[in-house]
Amino acid sequence: MKKDRVVIALGGNALQADPKDTTAESQLITAKATAKPLVDLIEEGHELIIAHGNGPQVGQIVATYEAAAGVPTMPFPECGAMSQGYIGYHLQQAIREEMLRRGIHKSVAALITQVVVDKNDPGFKNPTKPVGSFFSAEEAKKLQEEKGYIMKEDAGRGWRRVVASPEPVDVVEAPMIKTLVDAGHVVITVGGGGVPVIDKGNGVLEGVPAVIDKDFASEKIAEILDADYLIILTAVEKVAIHFNKPNQKELDRMTIAEAKQYIEEGHFAPGSMLPKVKAAMKFVESKPGRKALITSLEKAKEGIEGKTGTVIVRE
Ligand SMILES: Nc1ncnc2c1ncn2[C@@H]1O[C@H](COP(=O)(O)OP(=O)(O)O)[C@@H](O)[C@H]1O
Ligand SMILES: NC(=O)OP(=O)(O)O
């Protein structure tokens, strides 16, 4: 079997089995479960570059600083970097432990990664990315008034703070990531989509208050590293049309033309399935031979073996 260079984008369920339990203890337990399907792929000989979300975690870190009396407020990009460290540490520990259990001796590096965004990205004018906990409509109104947050209803699950989500332009640490991957190490990178920075010229970077979509950041690093595969792992085994309706149909395969049509028809929810499909399309279109798969965490191994998931193909 061909050994692939695989960029994995881990969804929220890979870090919080119960979205209401946001404790570090619970996250580490979930990370240990997440490590198993990831190490299945490493055991098969694939090179793994792992990205993950950070919406709940970065929101929690920001809220903690805001609630702490006598402590200066922590800027958003710094909170993003903290979330990369916190989540990266858990995944790093969990993956290493699972590899050792199976007699695999590899290092796992969790990198604080900066991702360049365009300061004129339209995303800055229209915040869409939900972060942190869920609130009732009443609580949301209060937060909006007291803290000036922009609050939006999140797919019937409650109200959440939203921040800007600009598109990733470049990954600052890409050469280092490539060196580590080429040397056979497992790399955790562009966590939370990367810490968003703008390029001020002459090598000066400045963090901006935003959260980059981790599916788009994963796509970007997959292109830069010339990966064979982009695998987006979420809570569903397959992408569906007519999702959650009586005529729901799960897709084994989707061409770019079909995906464009389904997007036009509104089958993929913005902020959840839509960015995944768009990231998969972009990767497949970027170079012939590149493959993209959307499936569940548990089915990652079967998915890469072509047994399940939704494969996105050129035609
Ligand atoms: N057309 C669709 N097909 C499958 N799932 C969909 C679709 N539209 C929305 N979803 C929902 O989107 C979820 C994935 O988005 P989300 O939970 O935001 O991602 P993440 O796994 O990155 O945290 C799925 O678990 C499913 O509930
Ligand atoms: N950064 C990011 O996309 O986070 P979530 O997947 O948690 O929304």
Automatic annotation (TrEMBL):
Biological-process GO terms, alphabetical: L-arginine deiminase pathway
Family: Belongs to the carbamate kinase family.
Domain Aspartate/glutamate/uridylate kinase: 5-294
Xref: Pfam families: AA_kinase
Keyword Kinase assigned: yes
Source organism, top-level taxon: Bacteria
InterPro entries per the UniProt record, alphabetical: AceGlu_kinase-like_sf, Asp/Glu/Uridylate_kinase, Carb_kinase
Keyword hit for Transferase: yes
Catalytic activity field: hydrogencarbonate + NH4(+) + ATP = carbamoyl phosphate + ADP + H2O + H(+)
Gene: arcC1
NCBIfam families: arcC, PRK12352.1
Annotated pathway: Metabolic intermediate metabolism; carbamoyl phosphate degradation; CO(2) and NH(3) from carbamoyl phosphate: step 1/1
GO cellular component: cytosol
Keywords: Arginine metabolism, Kinase, Transferase
UniProt GO molecular function: carbamate kinase activity
Name the record gives this protein: Carbamate kinase
Organism: Thermotalea metallivorans
